[in-house]
Amino acid sequence: MAKCAICGKGAHFGHNVSHSNRKTNRMWKSNVKSVKALVNGAPKKMYVCTSCLKSGKVERA
Asked: Domain coordinates of the chain in residue numbers?
């Protein structure tokens, strides 16, 4: 699973809880995109979450 190169956001874990309150493991995946971003003036391909893209923390190439 990809992890955000800016904030480090990755997968989160928890339980599916049924109506009878039985718990099974599940995973929430972060909305991470593969993006060409400018790093030290040069374009580099990296994984960035959409919240970092939206907030302007990443300058796209």
From this structure: 12-55
